[in-house]
Amino acid sequence: MTGRPRAWLMIALGLGVLAALPLLSTGGVLTWGFQVLLFVALAQSWNVLGGFGGQVSLGHAAFFGLGAVVTRMVWLSGHPLAVALPAGMVAATMAGVLIGAPTLRLRGPYFAIGTLAVAEILRITVGNVLPEVSTLSAPALAGYTLVPRYLLALMAAVLSTLVAWMLTQTRFGYGLAVVRDDEAVAEAVGVNAFRHKLAVFVLSSALAGLTGGVFGYYHVSFYPQFAFSPLWTFDALLITFFGGTGTVWGPPFAAAVYLLFREALALRLVELHVLVFGIVFVLVVLAFPGGLVAAWRAFGPGRLRQTHGS
Amino acid sequence: MTSVLLQNAVFGLLLGGLYGLGAVGLSLVFGVLAVLNVAHGELIMLGGYVSVWLFTLWRVDPFVSVLVAGPALFLVGAVLFRLFFRRLVSFAEDDRIKTSILIGFGLALVLQTLAILAWGADERAVTPRYAGMVMTVGNVVVPLSRLGALALAFLVLGGVHLFLTRTRVGTALRATADDEQGAVLVGIPIGTAYLRAFALGSALAGVAGALVSVSDAVSPAIGLHWTLKALIVIVLGGMGNIFGTFVAGLFLGLAEATSGFLLGNAYREVVGLMLFLLVLSVRPRGLLTRS
After folding, report:
1. pLDDT tens for residues A141-161?
2. Is residue A196 pLDDT above 90, yes or no?
3. What is the DSSP letter of B86?
4. What is the residue range of A309's domain?
5. pLDDT, position A124
6. Burial letters for A14-28: b for 16+ Cβ neighbours within 10 Å, e otherwise?
7. Which one of A116, A237, A286 has the shortest CB-CB distance to B87?
8. What local confidence, expressed as pLDDT, does residue A215 receive?
C-alpha cells in the first residue's frame, strides 16, 4: 500500500471534498449527497456479506429496518444520538447472530429464501406492533438540520467501505474468500467455514443497522414498516451487482450512478429507474458478473486493479 | 365458536387450493430445470391482469379468461426462457439455482414496474354477477366463486397430472427431471424439454392468476406474496408430486386460517413463514431436494 501513494492521495482528496461539501453547498446537492452516501453504506454492507462472503441474503432489509426503528425510538424518547445510534447497531448485531446462526446452515437457495422469509416475518410483525407513522416532535423538527445527517451518512459510508477494504487485506478476509470459493477446500486447509460466514453475517448486519440508524435519524416521518421493505434489499443488490460484487470500489461508484439515474428519470416517471436498473441487473448477472469494476479493468486504464478479495 | 372455526377452515381450504395451483408451476420448473424462478408470483400477477382486462373490456367471465391467461402466459414463459433462463442450462446445478434466483429477482422488479407503468399501482377487481352469491351448509357460508375456483384448480391439476403421466411429451419432462444425463442418452431433446417445462409452468401461473382474480383484487405488488406462498407450499409438500403440492397448498390455507382465528388476522401471514423456516431448519436441504 505504501507503493501506491497516488491512490491514497486521491482517496484523501475525495474524502476531503465530501467532508467539505456542507460548506460549499446546501439544499438539493447536499440531500442528493446524503442519499448517495446512504446507499453506498447500504450496498457496501450487503457487499461485505454477499460479495466478499458469497452468501446471497435476500433479508438485508431486516437489519436496516431494525437499526432505523430502534435508533429512532431511542432518539425520540429523549436520549442523545450518541446513545441511539449504537443502540440501533447493537439491536441489528444481535439480530444478526440470532438470524445468521440458523439460516447459514441452510444450503444453496434455501439461505436466500430463508433470509427473505425472516425479513418478511419481521416486516409484518413490525407493521402490526407499530402501525402508527413515526413523525418528529415539534422541538426535534425545529432543530432539524441536514449537515449532521450528511456527515453521519459519510461516516457510515466510509466505515463500511473501510470494512470492505479490510476484507481484501486481512487474514480473516482471505479465509472468507476461500470459504466463498470452495467450502470443502476451506475446511481442508483449516478454515472454519461456518464461523467465517457467521462473523461476516454479523458484521454485515451491524453495518446495515448503522445505515438504518442514519436513515431513522434523517427521515422526518415514515411508517416503521417502510424501513423493513424488501426494496432496501433490492436496492442494495442492484447497486452491488451493478458495481461489481466483492469489489471495494464498485458499490460506491454504482451508488452514485444509480442515484444520478434515479434523479434524472424520476423527473419523468417515478418508477422508470427501477425498470432500467432491473434490466441492467439481469444483464449484468447473465453477461458481466464482474459489474462496473470488471468492465473498468477490462477496458479502462487499469487504475483499479488489485481491488478483488482474493 | 366451533362454527366460526369451521367457517375459517372453509375459507382457508378455498384459498389453499389457489396456493397449491400457484405452487405447482414453480415446482414443475424447479423439478425439470433446477431453476428457481422467484418471478413466478409476477407471472401470477400478469395472469390476474389478463382476467381483469378481459372482464373490464368485454365482460368476459374470469373462469373463461383462464383459457386466455394460460396460453398468454405460456408465450410469456417461452420468451422469458429464450431470453434469460436458457443461458443458465450450461451452469453447474448449484450455480444454476443461485443465478436463477438473482435473475428471477431482477425480472420480478422489471415485471412489477412494467405493470405499474402500464396499469397504475391501484388494486383492480373483477365483479361478475355471481360475486356475492353463497351456499349455506349448516352454519357455514361457502362463496360460490371461490368454490368454483377451487374446483377448476383441481381440474387443471388433474389435467397436468394426466399430461405428465400419459403423454410422450409429459414423460420426457419427467425423465428430464429424474435424470438429465439419462434423458440425453435416450434421445430426449432436453433443450426443448426445458422450454416446454418453463412455458408450462408459466401457463399454470397464468391460470392461477386468473383464478385469483375471481375472489381477490389484483395489483402490481401482489407478486412477492404469491412467490412466497408458492415457496412455502413447495417446501411443505415436497417435489415431483402434483397432488402432494395441492394438498400442501390446502394445508397452508387451513393453517393460516386457523392461526388467523387464534392469533388474530394480522399474524396469519407470519405463521406460514414460520412453518417454512421450521421445515427448513429440520431438513436444511428442504423437502424439495431433487432426488
Report:
1. 877 888 888 999 999 999 999
2. yes
3. G
4. 229-310
5. 87
6. eeeebeebbeeeeee
7. A286
8. 94
Q: Verify whether the Cβ–Cβ distance B102 to A278 is below 8 Å.
A: no
Chain A CA closest to residue B112: A275
Q: Å from A52 to nearest chain B CA?
A: 16
Distance CA A249, CA A197 (A): 22
- List residues of A whose CB lies inside 8 A of any B CB: 56, 58, 102, 105-110, 112-114, 116-118, 120-121, 124-125, 127-128, 230, 234, 237-238, 241, 269, 271-272, 274-275, 277-279, 281-282, 285-286
Average pLDDT, chain A: 85
Q: How far apart are CA B128 and CA B136, in angstroms?
A: 20
Least confident among A280-284, A285-289, B160-164, B245-249: A285-289
Residues in chain B whose Cβ is within 8 Å of chain A: 36, 84, 87, 94, 97-99, 101-103, 105-107, 109-110, 113-114, 116-117, 224, 228, 231-232, 266-267, 269-270, 273-274, 276-277, 280-281, 284-286
Chain A residues closer than 8 Å to B228 by CB? 116-117, 120
Mean confidence (pLDDT) of chain B = 84
Identify whether residues A267 and A155 lie together within a single domain: no
Rounded Cα gap, residues B25 and A294, in angstroms: 37
Residue B84 to residue A237, Cβ atoms within 8 A: no
Q: Residue B124: phi, psi to the nearest 5?
A: -125, 150
- Tell me the Cα Rg of chain B: 19
Of B113, B228, B274, the CB nearest to A274: B113
Residue A186 lies in a domain: no
**Mean pLDDT within B16-41:** 88
**Is A183's pLDDT higher than 90?**
no
Same domain for A256 and A288? yes
Residue A53, min C-alpha distance to chain B (Å): 14
- Domains held by chain A: number: 2
**Residue A145 covered by a domain:** yes
Give the separation between CA A68 and CA A157, rounded to whole angstroms. Answer: 16
Flag whether the ipTM exceeds 0.95: no
A63 and A153 both lie in a single domain: yes
| Same domain membership, residue A262 and residue A198 | no
Q: Do B113 and A275 touch (CB under 8 A)?
A: yes
Q: Is residue A36 part of a domain?
A: no
Q: Are residues A79 and A202 in the same domain?
A: yes
Residue of A nearest to B87 (CA): A286
Q: Could you give the CA distance from residue A241 to residue A237 in angstroms, rounded to a whole number?
A: 6
Q: Give the end of a domain, one of A228, A243, A276.
A: A228
Residue A303 has pLDDT above 50, yes or no: no
Could you tell me if residue A259 is inside a domain?
A: yes
Q: Which residues of A touch B236 (CB under 8 A)?
A: none
Q: What is the pLDDT of residue A133?
A: 82
Q: Which three cell numbers stand for residue B172?
A: 420426457
The single residue listed with the C-alpha cell 475525495 is: A14
Nearest CA among B27, B56, B26, B53 for reference residue B42: B26
Subunit contact B113:A118, Cβ cutoff 8 A: no
Which domain-ending residue is among A204, A228, A252? A228
* Same domain membership, residue A102 and residue A214: yes
> A87 and A117: one domain?
yes
In this complex, the residue of B87, B113, B232 whose CB is nearest that of residue A278 is B113
Same domain, A121 and A209: yes
Strands B140-143 and B134-137, how do they pair? Answer: antiparallel
